[in-house]
# Entry
Amino acid sequence: MAQDKSFHRPLSLTRAAGFLLAILLVMSGGPSVAWAQSLTGERLGEGLSISIWSPQAKCPDVPPLVAIDVDPERYRFTVHYYQQDGLTDPLDIHQWQERTGHDLVFNAGLFRENYAYLGLLYGEGRSIGSRRHRTWLGLFVAEPAAAGSRRARVLDLTFDSFDEQQIPYREVAQSLMLLDRTGKIRVRQTGKRAHQTLVAEQGDGHLLILKTTDIVSLHALGECLRDAFPSLRQVMAMDGGSSSDVAVSPSLQQATSKMAGFHSWIPLLEESTPTHIGLPAVIGISPRREPAGAKTR
# Structure
Protein backbone atom coordinates (compact mmCIF):
# COMPACT_ATOMS: atom_id res chain seq x y z
CA MET A 1 0.00 0.00 0.00
CA ALA A 2 1.23 3.48 -0.74
CA GLN A 3 0.93 4.57 2.90
CA ASP A 4 3.13 2.28 5.01
CA LYS A 5 2.28 1.58 8.64
CA SER A 6 4.94 -1.06 9.25
CA PHE A 7 7.18 1.26 11.27
CA HIS A 8 4.81 1.10 14.23
CA ARG A 9 5.68 -2.54 14.87
CA PRO A 10 7.01 -2.99 18.43
CA LEU A 11 10.79 -3.32 18.66
CA SER A 12 10.43 -6.43 20.80
CA LEU A 13 8.76 -8.23 17.90
CA THR A 14 11.68 -7.37 15.59
CA ARG A 15 14.15 -8.69 18.16
CA ALA A 16 12.07 -11.80 18.69
CA ALA A 17 11.96 -12.44 14.94
CA GLY A 18 15.74 -12.00 14.74
CA PHE A 19 16.27 -14.41 17.63
CA LEU A 20 13.97 -16.97 15.99
CA LEU A 21 15.84 -16.61 12.72
CA ALA A 22 19.18 -17.25 14.42
CA ILE A 23 17.82 -20.40 16.05
CA LEU A 24 16.34 -21.67 12.80
CA LEU A 25 19.54 -21.11 10.85
CA VAL A 26 21.56 -22.96 13.49
CA MET A 27 19.10 -25.86 13.59
CA SER A 28 19.08 -26.13 9.82
CA GLY A 29 22.86 -26.13 9.63
CA GLY A 30 23.16 -22.51 8.53
CA PRO A 31 21.62 -20.57 5.69
CA SER A 32 20.43 -22.54 2.66
CA VAL A 33 23.01 -20.65 0.62
CA ALA A 34 26.18 -18.80 1.49
CA TRP A 35 26.46 -16.71 -1.68
CA ALA A 36 24.22 -15.95 -4.58
CA GLN A 37 26.31 -17.94 -7.04
CA SER A 38 25.40 -21.17 -5.18
CA LEU A 39 21.74 -20.44 -4.53
CA THR A 40 20.03 -23.80 -4.07
CA GLY A 41 16.75 -24.56 -2.42
CA GLU A 42 14.09 -27.09 -1.64
CA ARG A 43 12.18 -28.22 -4.67
CA LEU A 44 8.46 -27.46 -4.47
CA GLY A 45 7.76 -28.62 -8.01
CA GLU A 46 9.40 -29.10 -11.40
CA GLY A 47 10.67 -25.57 -11.98
CA LEU A 48 9.86 -24.14 -8.53
CA SER A 49 12.23 -24.04 -5.55
CA ILE A 50 12.57 -22.06 -2.34
CA SER A 51 15.49 -21.22 -0.06
CA ILE A 52 16.80 -18.72 2.47
CA TRP A 53 19.45 -16.33 1.15
CA SER A 54 21.51 -14.70 3.89
CA PRO A 55 23.78 -11.95 2.47
CA GLN A 56 24.78 -10.42 5.81
CA ALA A 57 28.49 -11.20 5.50
CA LYS A 58 28.59 -8.77 2.57
CA CYS A 59 25.53 -6.69 3.46
CA PRO A 60 25.28 -6.28 7.26
CA ASP A 61 22.22 -4.01 6.98
CA VAL A 62 20.21 -6.50 4.93
CA PRO A 63 18.32 -9.33 6.69
CA PRO A 64 17.98 -12.83 5.21
CA LEU A 65 15.44 -13.17 2.41
CA VAL A 66 13.12 -15.96 1.37
CA ALA A 67 14.05 -16.62 -2.27
CA ILE A 68 11.64 -18.41 -4.62
CA ASP A 69 13.07 -19.44 -7.99
CA VAL A 70 10.47 -19.86 -10.76
CA ASP A 71 10.98 -21.28 -14.25
CA PRO A 72 8.37 -19.49 -16.43
CA GLU A 73 8.53 -22.33 -18.95
CA ARG A 74 6.98 -24.63 -16.36
CA TYR A 75 4.91 -22.18 -14.27
CA ARG A 76 2.45 -19.56 -15.45
CA PHE A 77 1.68 -16.22 -13.77
CA THR A 78 -1.81 -14.80 -13.31
CA VAL A 79 -2.75 -11.28 -12.16
CA HIS A 80 -5.84 -10.89 -9.97
CA TYR A 81 -7.69 -7.72 -8.95
CA TYR A 82 -10.45 -8.01 -6.35
CA GLN A 83 -13.15 -6.16 -8.30
CA GLN A 84 -12.38 -8.10 -11.47
CA ASP A 85 -12.83 -11.28 -9.43
CA GLY A 86 -16.29 -10.10 -8.32
CA LEU A 87 -15.28 -9.24 -4.75
CA THR A 88 -16.55 -6.25 -2.77
CA ASP A 89 -13.45 -6.06 -0.54
CA PRO A 90 -9.79 -7.09 -0.92
CA LEU A 91 -8.71 -10.46 0.48
CA ASP A 92 -5.61 -11.13 2.54
CA ILE A 93 -2.84 -13.23 1.01
CA HIS A 94 -4.08 -16.55 2.44
CA GLN A 95 -7.65 -15.89 1.36
CA TRP A 96 -6.38 -15.12 -2.14
CA GLN A 97 -4.41 -18.38 -2.20
CA GLU A 98 -7.40 -20.39 -1.01
CA ARG A 99 -9.73 -18.73 -3.54
CA THR A 100 -7.43 -19.08 -6.55
CA GLY A 101 -5.74 -22.37 -5.70
CA HIS A 102 -2.35 -21.13 -6.92
CA ASP A 103 0.77 -22.83 -5.60
CA LEU A 104 2.14 -19.42 -4.65
CA VAL A 105 0.69 -15.90 -4.38
CA PHE A 106 2.46 -12.56 -3.79
CA ASN A 107 1.44 -8.91 -3.61
CA ALA A 108 1.18 -7.24 -7.01
CA GLY A 109 2.08 -3.59 -6.43
CA LEU A 110 1.10 -0.24 -4.98
CA PHE A 111 -2.43 1.07 -4.48
CA ARG A 112 -4.36 4.02 -3.10
CA GLU A 113 -6.39 4.23 0.12
CA ASN A 114 -9.51 3.39 -1.92
CA TYR A 115 -7.73 0.25 -3.23
CA ALA A 116 -7.29 1.64 -6.75
CA TYR A 117 -4.15 0.19 -8.30
CA LEU A 118 -1.38 2.67 -9.11
CA GLY A 119 -0.13 2.01 -12.62
CA LEU A 120 -0.74 -0.45 -15.43
CA LEU A 121 -2.46 -3.69 -14.45
CA TYR A 122 -3.68 -6.30 -16.93
CA GLY A 123 -5.28 -9.67 -16.38
CA GLU A 124 -6.08 -12.04 -19.25
CA GLY A 125 -5.21 -9.28 -21.69
CA ARG A 126 -7.67 -6.75 -20.26
CA SER A 127 -6.82 -3.55 -18.40
CA ILE A 128 -7.88 -3.76 -14.75
CA GLY A 129 -5.71 -0.95 -13.37
CA SER A 130 -5.19 2.74 -13.98
CA ARG A 131 -3.05 4.71 -16.40
CA ARG A 132 0.69 4.21 -16.82
CA HIS A 133 2.64 5.72 -13.95
CA ARG A 134 5.22 8.21 -15.23
CA THR A 135 7.98 7.56 -12.71
CA TRP A 136 7.48 3.93 -11.61
CA LEU A 137 9.12 2.26 -14.57
CA GLY A 138 9.30 -1.39 -13.53
CA LEU A 139 6.90 -3.66 -15.40
CA PHE A 140 6.28 -7.32 -14.62
CA VAL A 141 4.93 -9.03 -17.74
CA ALA A 142 3.88 -12.62 -18.42
CA GLU A 143 2.06 -14.79 -20.94
CA PRO A 144 3.06 -13.18 -24.26
CA ALA A 145 0.61 -12.76 -27.10
CA ALA A 146 3.26 -13.66 -29.70
CA ALA A 147 4.73 -17.13 -29.97
CA GLY A 148 8.44 -17.40 -29.31
CA SER A 149 8.61 -14.63 -26.70
CA ARG A 150 9.84 -15.31 -23.19
CA ARG A 151 6.92 -16.28 -21.00
CA ALA A 152 7.66 -13.90 -18.12
CA ARG A 153 10.01 -10.94 -17.76
CA VAL A 154 10.83 -7.79 -15.85
CA LEU A 155 10.76 -4.83 -18.24
CA ASP A 156 12.32 -1.45 -17.57
CA LEU A 157 10.28 1.26 -19.31
CA THR A 158 13.39 3.46 -19.44
CA PHE A 159 14.80 1.08 -22.05
CA ASP A 160 11.96 -1.28 -23.05
CA SER A 161 8.81 -0.40 -25.00
CA PHE A 162 5.29 -1.45 -24.09
CA ASP A 163 2.48 -0.78 -26.59
CA GLU A 164 -0.83 -0.24 -24.82
CA GLN A 165 -2.65 -0.28 -28.17
CA GLN A 166 -1.43 -3.77 -28.99
CA ILE A 167 -0.81 -5.43 -25.64
CA PRO A 168 2.19 -7.76 -25.99
CA TYR A 169 1.50 -9.66 -22.73
CA ARG A 170 -1.71 -10.88 -21.11
CA GLU A 171 -0.57 -10.43 -17.49
CA VAL A 172 1.01 -7.10 -16.47
CA ALA A 173 1.74 -5.24 -13.21
CA GLN A 174 3.62 -1.93 -12.94
CA SER A 175 5.68 -0.89 -9.92
CA LEU A 176 9.03 0.59 -8.86
CA MET A 177 12.23 -0.20 -10.70
CA LEU A 178 14.86 -1.00 -8.06
CA LEU A 179 17.96 -2.15 -9.92
CA ASP A 180 18.42 -1.87 -13.67
CA ARG A 181 20.56 -3.72 -16.20
CA THR A 182 23.32 -1.09 -15.96
CA GLY A 183 23.71 -1.68 -12.21
CA LYS A 184 22.05 1.61 -11.31
CA ILE A 185 19.88 1.73 -8.17
CA ARG A 186 16.66 3.47 -9.15
CA VAL A 187 15.35 4.53 -5.73
CA ARG A 188 16.51 7.36 -3.50
CA GLN A 189 18.27 6.87 -0.17
CA THR A 190 15.54 8.01 2.25
CA GLY A 191 16.37 6.00 5.38
CA LYS A 192 12.84 4.54 5.36
CA ARG A 193 12.84 0.86 6.34
CA ALA A 194 10.07 -1.67 5.76
CA HIS A 195 9.38 -5.23 4.69
CA GLN A 196 9.82 -5.66 0.94
CA THR A 197 8.74 -7.99 -1.86
CA LEU A 198 10.86 -7.99 -5.03
CA VAL A 199 10.64 -9.60 -8.47
CA ALA A 200 13.95 -10.15 -10.24
CA GLU A 201 14.84 -11.42 -13.69
CA GLN A 202 17.85 -13.73 -13.76
CA GLY A 203 20.34 -14.29 -16.52
CA ASP A 204 19.00 -17.80 -17.19
CA GLY A 205 15.46 -16.51 -17.75
CA HIS A 206 14.11 -17.68 -14.40
CA LEU A 207 12.33 -15.19 -12.15
CA LEU A 208 13.18 -14.80 -8.49
CA ILE A 209 10.58 -13.71 -5.93
CA LEU A 210 12.34 -12.25 -2.89
CA LYS A 211 10.64 -11.59 0.46
CA THR A 212 12.55 -9.93 3.32
CA THR A 213 12.38 -11.48 6.79
CA ASP A 214 12.75 -8.10 8.52
CA ILE A 215 12.60 -4.40 7.73
CA VAL A 216 15.24 -2.88 5.44
CA SER A 217 15.62 0.17 3.21
CA LEU A 218 15.03 -0.34 -0.50
CA HIS A 219 18.26 1.47 -1.34
CA ALA A 220 20.34 -0.84 0.91
CA LEU A 221 18.58 -3.83 -0.62
CA GLY A 222 19.37 -2.61 -4.12
CA GLU A 223 23.04 -2.09 -3.25
CA CYS A 224 23.25 -5.57 -1.76
CA LEU A 225 21.67 -7.28 -4.76
CA ARG A 226 23.93 -5.40 -7.14
CA ASP A 227 27.09 -6.34 -5.24
CA ALA A 228 26.28 -9.83 -3.95
CA PHE A 229 23.88 -11.29 -6.54
CA PRO A 230 25.48 -10.65 -9.97
CA SER A 231 23.25 -13.12 -11.82
CA LEU A 232 20.25 -10.78 -11.44
CA ARG A 233 19.63 -8.81 -14.62
CA GLN A 234 17.13 -6.31 -13.24
CA VAL A 235 14.89 -6.05 -10.20
CA MET A 236 11.58 -4.35 -9.46
CA ALA A 237 10.02 -3.67 -6.04
CA MET A 238 6.37 -4.49 -5.45
CA ASP A 239 4.44 -2.88 -2.58
CA GLY A 240 6.30 -2.89 0.74
CA GLY A 241 5.52 -2.51 4.44
CA SER A 242 2.34 -4.19 5.68
CA SER A 243 1.41 -5.02 2.07
CA SER A 244 4.55 -7.09 1.47
CA ASP A 245 3.29 -10.65 1.52
CA VAL A 246 3.86 -14.11 0.04
CA ALA A 247 1.84 -17.30 0.56
CA VAL A 248 2.73 -20.86 -0.39
CA SER A 249 -0.18 -23.29 -0.63
CA PRO A 250 -0.79 -25.51 2.42
CA SER A 251 -0.48 -28.63 0.25
CA LEU A 252 3.06 -27.67 -0.84
CA GLN A 253 4.01 -26.81 2.73
CA GLN A 254 2.68 -30.14 3.97
CA ALA A 255 4.47 -32.07 1.24
CA THR A 256 7.73 -30.28 2.05
CA SER A 257 7.38 -30.82 5.81
CA LYS A 258 7.25 -34.59 5.22
CA MET A 259 10.66 -34.53 3.55
CA ALA A 260 13.83 -35.14 5.52
CA GLY A 261 15.58 -32.17 7.10
CA PHE A 262 14.50 -28.95 8.76
CA HIS A 263 12.58 -26.60 6.48
CA SER A 264 13.48 -23.19 7.86
CA TRP A 265 11.55 -21.21 5.23
CA ILE A 266 8.12 -22.42 6.42
CA PRO A 267 8.02 -20.58 9.79
CA LEU A 268 10.08 -17.69 8.44
CA LEU A 269 7.56 -16.92 5.72
CA GLU A 270 4.88 -16.51 8.38
CA GLU A 271 6.98 -14.80 11.03
CA SER A 272 8.31 -12.20 8.58
CA THR A 273 4.84 -10.65 8.21
CA PRO A 274 3.22 -9.81 11.58
CA THR A 275 -0.21 -9.11 10.06
CA HIS A 276 -1.87 -9.98 6.77
CA ILE A 277 -3.89 -7.08 5.39
CA GLY A 278 -6.32 -7.02 2.49
CA LEU A 279 -4.55 -6.82 -0.88
CA PRO A 280 -6.53 -5.53 -3.87
CA ALA A 281 -4.14 -7.06 -6.41
CA VAL A 282 -1.99 -10.20 -6.32
CA ILE A 283 -0.01 -12.37 -8.71
CA GLY A 284 -0.47 -16.14 -8.61
CA ILE A 285 1.89 -18.88 -9.79
CA SER A 286 0.68 -22.32 -10.89
CA PRO A 287 2.10 -25.21 -12.94
CA ARG A 288 1.45 -25.05 -16.66
CA ARG A 289 -1.01 -27.57 -18.00
CA GLU A 290 0.46 -28.30 -21.40
CA PRO A 291 -1.60 -30.32 -23.90
CA ALA A 292 -0.47 -33.90 -24.40
CA GLY A 293 2.64 -33.98 -26.55
CA ALA A 294 3.19 -30.22 -26.30
CA LYS A 295 6.74 -28.93 -25.96
CA THR A 296 7.76 -25.87 -24.00
CA ARG A 297 9.96 -23.36 -25.79
